[in-house]
Amino acid sequence: MYGYLERNGLQPIDDLQIQLTEKFVVPNIEALTSGFLEIRVLLDALWRGEKIVHSDASKLQVLIQMVHKQKKMYAAKTATEYPIGLCYPISLIAHKYICTCEINDAASPFFALRDFVEEGGVFKVIWGEVRHEYFQTAMQIGSWYFDAANDTVDVHKPKVVSCAFSSAESEFFEVTSVSQYLQIKENYHECSIYRNTVFPKLAKIFPLLTVANKDGKLSIEVSMHFADLMLSQSDAMAFVAELPLPSAIVVQHIQDRVQPIAQRFQYAEWLELNNELEEVICAATYSAVEVRKAIKAAKYINFLI
Prior knowledge:
This protein has helices at 15-25, 29-47, 57-73, 87-102, 112-118, 178-188, 224-232, 236-240, 248-264, 269-282, 288-304; strands at 123-130, 134-141, 144-147, 161-164, 172-173, 191-195, 208-212, 218-220. The protein has two domains: 15-173, no CATH class; 178-304, no CATH class. The protein has 305 residues and is α+β, with helices and mostly antiparallel strands. The relative contact order is 0.11. It starts with 14 loop residues before the first helix and ends with a helix. The strands form two sheets. Strands 4-3-2-1-5 form a five-stranded antiparallel beta sheet. The protein has a three-stranded antiparallel beta sheet with strand order 6-7-8.
């Protein structure tokens, strides 16, 4: 799966990262943190549909387009209290906006990152977990952790935080195993997890069915992070095989909902996957086309059920 799945893991912090961070980042920590906060203020206003005035119209237009694109992709979450659950799009927008508009602007606090990156410093979006309690998307800048979406679990927390990964304040950990992922998933998302035996070929990439504890909402777990773990660990499928099977009621509900509607709207891609992906999956070779089809099928099934 590597090669087309964006790797959002923490890049190893070697001597080069430490040296470049001490040279370019540490002297500018306050300015960088303030810069992230300024971006969040603009981003928040745009996400909420508020009209804002910015001294640089071209930069504002770029940010407007980025926010609009992510809002469309995360429309289902806009019904919840903003910014709950939106750590990924917020972090992605902030990172992309900085790289596009700020890093080469001498008047920007992020100008300090230009030489840092050119000399080999890491500036990337990372994904992991915080305090073994919930998933979080943030940013790695060399040997420092920057979270521009720190309030996406608890709105009362500061919007932006920063600290060295080596410091006692750092609560970020990589998710490195299937068991770690499932434990956090079940608690954080308040759901029960079952093996996906209903769609066997999709299960090669998306092997989990989840049932929300609150309302019983069914869904295939469409997580590229989890798919990455599945394909990078030799014992991952054996671990998943130990999960409980979905009940007969769950299976019947899915069949009753999905099959008639899929046939009615002539949307058969998810059905074709059982045949089209089999040869590719059995050969243990993957391409972006197959995974995109699997994602599309799984998301459509989730819409139906």
